[in-house]
Amino acid sequence: MSVLALGPSANGRVSGKAWKLEYKGRSQDGVKAKSFEDRMTETKKAQAIKKIERELKEEKQAEATRRKEITLARKKATEERRKLEEDRAKMGARKAARLRRKAGRSKKVNG
Question: Which InterPro entries does the record match to this protein (predicted)?
């Protein structure tokens, strides 16, 4: 039988966790590599981009709202015109019926 060589440790004992590596910090290497000023310039750029995007979105929303209002106003005007035409037609029919009655040509007589 052969003797196994043990690694250097207290009283020849070694941890069974040979797979466990030495602990390293959890922070990202990219964060440590950049200076504070670099990070702040990137943050300012990102904020400027977001501000521009927000403004563009608001402009687009305002344009869509304006178009909707114009469309609604046109529909309202069209409906109003249609109602006036119907009222005129009704008034015309009523007046014609009165005239026929005066002349003695009612629905009962003419069928």
Answer: Cgr1-like
